Amino acid sequence: MIRTILGALVGRELDRRDGKGGAGGALLGMIATRAVTRMGPLGMALGGAYVAKKAYDRRKASKAGATAI
């Protein structure tokens, strides 16, 4: 269950770059989930770190009043 949630979060973060949304994020999330699972605990740590970094940057930008990318 954790891998599904982590894959969905990574897919969402990757899909936010182009701003189109839709099936692209779901597909990226599915691919990210498979890649993270194949890498084992290291993949889970890397995926979690990626999502945490993006969330941290977004929060920092919102506190500064800038638009998060």
Report on this model:
By secondary structure, this protein is mainly α. The chain has one domain. 80% of the residues lie in helices and 0% in strands. The protein has helices spanning 2-15, 23-39, 41-64. Helix 1 (2-15) packs across helix 2. The protein is flat. The termini are far apart.
Number of helices: 3
Distance between the termini: 28 Å
Main beta-sheet strand count, sense and barrel state = none
Structural class determined from secondary elements: mainly alpha
Question: What's the number of extended β-strand segments?
Answer: 0
Radius of gyration: 13 Å
- Poorly predicted ranges (pLDDT <50, ≥5 residues)? none
Q: What is the number of domains? A: 1
- Mean pLDDT level: 75
Strand percent estimate? under 5%
- Order of helices and strands, N to C? HHH
Task: Give the oligomer, counting copies of the same chain as homo and different chains as hetero.
Answer: single chain
Proportion of helical residues: over 70%
Q: What does the overall shape look like? A: flat
Outline the fold blueprint.
Layout: H1 2-15, H2 23-39, H3 41-64
Q: Could you give a quick summary of the protein structure above?
A:
With 69 residues, this protein is mainly α.
Q: Characteristics of this structure?
A:
69 residues, mainly alpha, 3 helices, 80% helix, flat
